[in-house]
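The following record pairs a protein chain with its ligand, alpha-D-glucopyranose.
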Amino acid sequence: MTVFKRLAFVALSGILALNASAQEVGTDVHGRSSTYEWPTDAKVLEKLDQWRDLKFGVIFHWGLYSVPGIVESWSICSEDVDWIGRRWDMPYDEYKKWYWGLKDEFNPTEFDPGKWAEIMQDGGMKYMVFTTKHHDGFCMYDSKYTDFSIANHAFKNHPKRDVARWVFDAFRQKGMWVGCYFSKPDWHSEWFWHPHYATPNRKPNYNLERHPEWWLSFKEFTKKQLAELTTDYGSLDILWLDGGWVKGDDVDLDDVLRGARQRHPGLICVDRAVPGKNENYQTPERGIPDVQLDNPWESCITLSNDWGWVPNAPYKPAQKVLNTLIEVTAKGGALLLGVGPTAQGTIEEPVVERLQTIGNWLKVNGKAIYGTRNAKVYHDGNVWFTADKDGKTLYAIYALPEGESLPAEIQWKGNAPKGKVRLLCNGKSLKTKTKKGVTTVKLPNGLPQEALVLEFQVK
Ligand code: GLC
């Protein structure tokens, strides 16, 4: 990119980023599906139970949109809503051409997936989900079925051009679980957005009943891509399918899974926002359910306001993320934190800093998070409860609100301790009394001003 172009991008990105941030308050996001259907495959159930131990993962959005730093894919979709930013200096058709052309700019020469994995592991994360293909159809892997991929353009001569392969390997090497994000909708495919028609919204732009053969071609294409991702890219733990306006059934997901689960027994499939047998866990987006849930679920929440990288992103403080993780865990879920690598392939320093703080806390207090299960009484004010699997040991986690200091004592109703209450960070027992079902614990002075974990027995 020339210096001039780079400057123009930065200026422009600022404008678009403003728009993109509006998504935080936008309504067009996935809520939690209203029903949950437990899978019947014993291996999937077993894997889900293991997944429920992990609690904390990262979702990377990395694609063409990372080059100018704009909302992921959505700007080429002609829906007039506040959270989709668009350049005003170009009409729609020209804009799309410009967007597709970003393939010739995307050259992430500093891509170092080992570093990504190290940062996320130090942050206490146990699993990773990577965008192999977002709605714009640009593949972040070397697909045999399209040239529209990172492996064929500006980055084509780089040894790591088959990007997803390297990302998956790097995380596997750290012992972390690997999830493959794949968008069922593909706005670059002519069998989805047919060139003979306008593209007014996110859906296929033709009448499927009049052109069943076009949809058949799309279905075949999608199935082949899913087959290659689940055959040629090593072991996978989670298939995270986005774009719920195309349902798994529309692309024969059952067939895909039959094959994929032979190669990856127990593979967890998240046909998100499509309630039914292939939504193995629910994925409320940018929010936390109001109450504790017994079925498996995961909140996906951005670390800044956007899924992909944008310039000057307003990253949330570590304390806020930690409090979210605590609440999510006590309610029985997992937190999938959204991070956007830069167009050069790096993870920004403010992300690293926040993850370090979170990771340091988890190194000391992780026993109250990882591998825990729901406590019946799970919440009282700022105190959240988690339980060991046998239900005998409970953890009371005081989520310190931002801008506040630790109180002199902590109180909660229910979950009366039997015996000593210990501070997890230093093993010391604390002065405790329980009266009329209300437990009061005195805190010593000089504790670090951060979330606090108390450990005790209830049986
Ligand atoms: C929403 C967005 C999509 C993003 C996903 C991540 O569905 O529309 O672009 O990839 O959330 O959870």
